[in-house]
Amino acid sequence: MRKVIIIYGPPGAGKGTQANLLAGKLGLIHFDTGKYLEQLLHDSELQKNPEIKKARKIFDSGALVTPSFVLKVTSKKTREIAKAGWGIVFSGSPRTLFEAFGDSKNEGLIPAFEKLYGKKNIVPILLKIDPKISILRNAHRLVCSVCGTAILYSDTEHQHKTCPLCGGKLYKRVVDNPKVFGTRIKEYQERTAPILAGLKKRGYKITEVDGRPLPYKVFDSILKKLK
Predict the structure, then answer these.
(1) Architecture of domain 4-131+178-226
(2) Domain boundaries, the chain
(3) Beta bridge partners of 38
(4) What is the predicted pLDDT for the residue at 71?
């Protein structure tokens, strides 16, 4: 499918889970900017690079990495995906107005995708969720160290000890630390959420979906609205 689906919502809304489900169902590439940056910035072979070291310090604090750096690395990678003929689903990216729309000297991702895919094939989705649920989810979030699967939180007495998909060891991401998480929510509200208004001004309709139910129910709602 030659589409670009962009899923927005606060941390803990389930963006990554829904992006994975959509990628599998519709034959898209899930470009997880957060995971891509985490792998890039924690690559042991790149730690002597001053630009990487600076960006990693910002990333690990929960703040958004310098937009010009993010735009450079994500634009290159996503253009490669488009050139290969794949559609893309994003989970929470582009993350700033600059990354989304660029400026007089830099082409943002939205204008780039309009040229590559056509405006009618770009679909913004907003997962709406109460901040209290968002905080609860991330406080207990675990991720598989092997396949990257995010483990669904139910309650403290029934948590997986290993990944139910591949059996790999589970870990808590640096950015899911409660102190860091507060910064992430603030960053989303101040720097990412305004993109939705920018998309509306550009003529896009934002598809809103309730992010509170179980993932399969949210997924069903998204598919119905996409049709």
Answers:
(1) 3-Layer(aba) Sandwich (3.40)
(2) 4-131+178-226
(3) none
(4) 94
pLDDT computed for residue 38 by the predictor: 85
Angle of CA points 130, 29, 210, to nearest 5°: 20
Q: What is the average per-residue pLDDT within 35-49?
A: 90
Amino acid (one-letter) located at 20: N
In this structure, what token pair is assigned to residue 148? Answer: 């990257």
d(CA 18, CA 223): 10
Q: Rounded to two decimals, what is the model's pTM?
A: 0.84
Between 33 and 218, name the one with better pLDDT.
218
Tokens matching residue 113:
């995708």
| Max avg pLDDT among 34-48, 151-165, 211-225 | 211-225
Q: Does the pLDDT at position 24 exceed 90?
A: yes
| Sequence-ordered strand ranges (E) for the chain | 4-8, 29-31, 88-91, 122-128, 142-144, 150-151, 170-171, 207-210
Determine the Cα–Cα distance for residues 211 and 217; give it in Å rounded to an integer: 9
Pairing assessment for the beta strands 4-8 and 122-128 based on DSSP bridges: parallel
The verdict on whether omega for the bond into residue 94 sits within 30 degrees of 0, i.e. cis, is yes
Task: Enumerate residues 6+ apart whose C-beta is below 8 A from 144.
Answer: 150, 151, 163, 165, 166, 168, 169, 170
Helix (H, G, I), strand (E, B) or coil at 129: coil
Write out the two tokens for 81.
């995906």
